[in-house]
Structures are given as structure tokens and as C-alpha cells.
Amino acid sequence: MKGGQGGTSKSTVKFRMPTAENLIPIRVDLEMEGQRYKDAFTWNANDPDSEILVFAKRTVKDLNLPSAFTSLIAQSIQSQIAEFRSYEGSEMPTGERVHCLKLDLRVNSTVIRDQFLWDLGNLESDPEEFARGLCRDLELEDPEVGPAIAVAIREQLYELSAQSVASGRETRISKKARRDFGIDFTQSSKIVSAFDLMKRSSMKTSAVRRRIEWDLFEPVVELLTSEEVEALDAREERNAHLKKRQDDKDDPYPNRYMRV
């Protein structure tokens, strides 16, 4: 998968994930009755809402979780999808938009840290294929690492896309204000594109790096021992308990759940 070189056009498209498939990153971390459900996955933005409850019920059944988790899982997914849909209809810029994405993940006993350039203007990009290629290059055998990398990439692409929409709104408001006050904003300084900067520094625009470029963006992989994994899991559990206590303390309606 290549990041691709966008043109210089300032055209826009309706908001969506800047990837070939419009898959939304979903992250769920819930605790109830002494049990915890934690997962990250993607959700097709075009799937009907009725599928959310079906997924929640199947998850609870497969993992033998208390039935109360059904509404909690459904609510968490629904709220994240609703946030994504709040941007739909907004204009999102196209063209060359290169950003540096970073990974800092632990999946089971594998820790991976990396950074690479990604073109948000390439609407045919494929985070899942990139993740599979990275796992092959690094000889990572854990089948859960690839999906986790893809979700982490999608989370960053989503955040950057949402920021571009918000920035666009602010720009339009600013221009309207300038027009109202009779200020000429048509004369602007020349903007140097990200691709021009990359060309000057002899960096590649592809999101997939050649091995000779790994000295610039070198991935780091660490395999933990079982003792180290247990220690990290215990620390994460403690932090999750503390966070839940704080959230319950801050929420005046702790028993308010979505009705399903």
C-alpha cells in the first residue's frame, strides 16, 4: 500500500475515513461486577444500527460476561459511531496532506514503536494491508498485532480528519468575519506543500518505507517475558480500577445506561 501523491487541488469531499474502506476505529474498555471487557476493532460506517446490539449480545455470550455488559458495550459503540456521524456532511479537504503517524503499542507480549509518513489525501490507502506488510517485514507472528496496528493507524487518521474539518469551519468563520469588516485576505503568503518539503529532504512519500530508509524511521520491537507481561497487566488493571472509581465519583447518574 502506498501513501500516494495527491495533486495540488484544493477540492473537498464529504467527511469520511480517508481510506479505501470507510471503517471506523472503535475502542471499548468496560468493567462491571468484577469483570473487564477491553477490545479495539473497526466498524463499517454503513452497517445498520441494529447490528450493534447483535454484536454486543454475541460478544457477551462468547466471553461469558454478565448480561449487564450487553447494554454497556452497545452504548459505547453507539456513542463512538454517533460522534463519527456528527462530522458527516462536513467538507473535508483533499490533495496532498502528509502527516507523521506514530505507533506505541503493546499487544500481549509484543511491544512495537514506530513512525512513518502517511498521506491523508490518498483515499485509497489501506491501513490493514500496511499493518500486514509491517508484520511480515518485522517477522511478527502474533496474529493480534496486525489488527491492533491497523486500528491505531485508523484512530490517528480519524483524529486528523476531524481536526481538518474543525479547522475548515474556523477558517470559513474567520473569512466571513474579515469580509464583514472589509479586510482583504486574498493576498496570502506562498504555502510550501508537504510533498515539496519531503522532496527537498529526499524523503519518500510512500507510507511503506524501503529498508534503506529505516535509519530515518526505524521500527523498534520488544518481546516481553511472561513476568513482564504479568506486571504490566497488573498495573493496567490497577489504573483501570482507579479510573473507574474516579468516573463513578464524577458521574451523578452512575446507573444510567442506554436502553436496548
Mind sketching the topology for me?
Blueprint: E1 12-14, E2 23-32, E3 35-44, H1 50-63, H2 69-85, E4 91-93, E5 98-107, E6 110-119, H3 127-138, H4 145-180, H5 194-200, E7 220-223, H6 226-250
Antiparallel strand pairs: 1-4, 2-3, 5-6, 6-7
Helix pairs in contact: 1-2, 3-4
Describe the 3D structure.
The chain has 260 residues and is of the alpha+beta class. The chain is built from 6 helices and 7 strands, in the order βββααβββαααβα. The strands form 3 sheets. Strands 5-6-7 form a 3-stranded antiparallel β-sheet, covered by helices on one side. α1 packs antiparallel against α2 (69-85) and α3 (127-138) packs across α4. The longest helix has 36 residues, at 145-180. The model is unreliable at 1-9, 172-178, 183-206 and 256-260 (pLDDT under 50).
Task: Assign the structural class, choosing from mainly alpha, mainly beta, alpha/beta, alpha+beta, or little secondary structure.
Answer: alpha+beta
Estimate percent helicity. 40-55%
Q: What is the 3D form? A: globular
User: For the largest beta sheet, what order do the strands appear in spatially?
Assistant: 5-6-7
Strand coverage percent = 15-25%
Radius of gyration of CA atoms, rounded to a whole number:
22 Å
Estimate the mean pLDDT confidence: 82
* Main sheet specs: 3 strands, antiparallel
Cα separation of the termini = 40 Å
Uncertain parts: 1-9, 172-178, 183-206, 256-260
